[in-house]
TrEMBL record:
It comes from Rhodocytophaga rosea. One of its GO terms (biological process) is riboflavin biosynthetic process. Residues 3-102 form the Bacterial bifunctional deaminase-reductase C-terminal domain. It comes from the Bacteria. Transmembrane segments: none annotated. GO terms for molecular function: 5-amino-6-(5-phosphoribosylamino)uracil reductase activity. This is Dihydrofolate reductase family protein.
Amino acid sequence: MRKLKLEVQLSIDGFAAGAEGKTDWMLWHWQPEWNWDKPLQDFHTELQTSSDTVLLGKNMASGDFYRHWQQIAGSKENPQQEFANAIINMKRFMFSRKLKKSPWKDVELLKETSKKRS
């Protein structure tokens, strides 16, 4: 059996984004600079480099998540490059009930195939 690691930022009341979808309240929200201290950077880099698969919801996969990390992975001067390369080199799966195909050629779309359990 494989291990599942969860990395998520939620507000204290359980929201992952503001009312209009903004994530500017998060510790990190896809900004060019990495404003974390070194121990936090190292922790998250180790989390990514020790993983081989990333599971994405439709909103994250359809948004700028993947495009952002592709850009960072190509920048040797960026201190986030190791972190970004880990994400770009992982297998990526996206969950959606509505989409017919993945927005990215190398992100596999997983659809619900069984009926809901009561």
